[in-house]
């Protein structure tokens, strides 16, 4: 078995399969995971804030950038993770498989990290297409897996820190996995002689040296420069052909993103339709009113009455958790004006209730920092036209720096909390 393992490592020898290259790709992958984790936490707490949390409303495109970055780094993890797996693949054939507790911890953490990483980035990618072929709730599992991955990453870095430190800088010596395995074998001459036999004077230097001498011929298959170029091109391609759904300069080459800028009713993409929400009849009813409730006092506004109030025009993006965004012009009543009409306290937060009776975000909450922001509107028009049903007619919420799922469509009630 030991000899078979060495033969497998010999067959897999390559100039890119060395600790230095593993460290280089590992740095990029680690940075991508950390950025993904940080921006994911921000998105999660925007949707489920703790009581003490308050969020920035400026710049107004903040969530557009953070969530777009979240998706881009998540997508970049695919080629980077595959590249890292390619580099360390010969380690699967190390013998013995486990050399002690630290080695066991290292291998177990790597196995769990790789498995959890593949699950995490795969379900994240499928979420952008709103396809959920699994029985568990995406948002909760995605959040929990993020913490698991960061924990495993810390463990992995901890056990590999000596190797990472040694091969961190550009001038580090390059030693591939095969040579490391052979050098480890030299520590036990008796075992090496038993395994390889002695064909030259010096015992262990016999077939072991033949083994090393044969390695360069196997290495010529993939050059380091070619490998890095391939990884760079692959990463640039998957990011560049997707990022256009968030970042306008790349919109022309957005081939993989599920949303395209300017495509949709009134030039804005739609995530959740009125048919999915089952709100068409209620939204188009002649008797629709928006009820505002503050401190036990309620007042209902028809759409005509809302239009008769002072109107404000703003330019704000719809930025969705799936990573796409679209800048648009909105016109409507400032929420702060409605709050003042109801004599609401300046520190009042609101609960927004949609005509949609079911759905994770049929009821959302808005902190006082958004309520009092002059860009926060009960929107009645979009891009110079009456708000389309698919965009929330007869009225919807639009606020700076908020995820699209919190920009409640088909409003029916706003109440102080």
From TrEMBL:
Q: Name one Pfam family in it.
A: Oxidored_molyb
The name under which this protein is listed is Molybdopterin-binding protein
Any GO MF annotation of the entry: oxidoreductase activity
Matching entries from PANTHER family are given as:
BLL0505 PROTEIN, PROTEIN-METHIONINE-SULFOXIDE REDUCTASE
Provide the transmembrane region boundaries: 21-45, 65-89, 110-132, 144-163, 226-244
Tell me the keywords, alphabetical order. Answer: Membrane, Transmembrane, Transmembrane helix
Q: Which residues form the Oxidoreductase molybdopterin-binding domain?
A: 285-416
Q: Which organism is it from?
A: Cryobacterium suzukii
What do the Gene Ontology cellular component annotations say? Answer: membrane
Q: Which SUPFAM superfamilies match?
A: Oxidoreductase molybdopterin-binding domain, Transmembrane di-heme cytochromes
* Any one GO BP annotation for this protein: respiratory electron transport chain
In terms of InterPro entries, this protein maps to:
Di-haem_cyt_TM, Mopterin_OxRdtase_euk, OxRdtase_Mopterin-bd_dom, OxRdtase_Mopterin-bd_sf
């Amino acid at each position: 078995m030991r000899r078979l393992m060495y033969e497998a490592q010999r067959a897999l020898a390559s100039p890119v399969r060395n600790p230095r290259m593993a460290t280089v790709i590992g740095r990029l992958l680690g940075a991508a995971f950390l950025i993904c984790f940080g921006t994911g936490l921000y998105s999660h707490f925007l949707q489920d804030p703790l009581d003490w949390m308050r969020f920035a409303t400026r710049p107004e495109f903040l969530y557009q950038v953070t969530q777009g970055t979240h998706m881009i780094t998540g997508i970049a993890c695919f080629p980077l993770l595959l590249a890292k797996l390619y580099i360390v693949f010969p380690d699967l054939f190390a013998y013995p498989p486990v050399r002690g507790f630290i080695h066991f911890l290292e291998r177990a953490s790597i196995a769990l990290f790789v498995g959890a990483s593949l699950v995490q980035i795969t379900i994240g990618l499928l979420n952008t297409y709103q396809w959920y072929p699994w029985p568990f709730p995406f948002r909760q599992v995605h959040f929990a897996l993020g913490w698991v991955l960061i924990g495993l990453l810390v463990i992995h870095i901890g056990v590999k820190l000596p190797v990472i430190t040694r091969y961190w800088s550009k001038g580090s010596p390059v030693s591939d996995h095969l040579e490391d395995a052979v050098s480890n074998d030299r520590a036990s001459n008796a075992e090496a002689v038993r395994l390889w036999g002695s064909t030259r004077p010096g015992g262990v230097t016999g077939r072991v040296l033949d083994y090393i001498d044969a390695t360069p011929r196997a290495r010529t298959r993939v050059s380091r420069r070619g490998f890095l170029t391939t990884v760079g091109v692959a990463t640039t391609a998957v990011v560049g052909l997707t990022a256009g759904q968030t970042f306008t300069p790349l919109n022309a080459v957005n081939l993989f993103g599920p949303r395209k800028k300017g495509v949709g009713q009134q030039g804005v993409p739609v995530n959740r339709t009125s048919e999915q929400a089952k709100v068409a009849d209620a939204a188009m009813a002649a008797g629709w009113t928006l009820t505002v409730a503050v401190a036990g006092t309620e007042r209902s506004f028809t759409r005509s009455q809302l239009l008769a109030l002072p109107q404000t025009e703003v330019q704000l993006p719809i930025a969705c958790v799936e990573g796409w965004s679209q800048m648009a012009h909105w016109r409507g009543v400032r929420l702060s004006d409605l709050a003042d009409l109801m004599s609401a306290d300046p520190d009042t937060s609101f609960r927004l209730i949609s005509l949609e009776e079911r759905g994770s975000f049929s009821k959302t909450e808005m902190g006082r920092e958004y309520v009092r922001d002059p860009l926060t509107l009960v929107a009645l028009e979009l891009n110079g036209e009456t708000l389309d049903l698919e965009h929330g007619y007869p009225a919807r919420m639009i606020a700076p720096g908020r995820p699209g799922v919190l920009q409640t469509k088909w409003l029916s009630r706003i109440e102080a909390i």
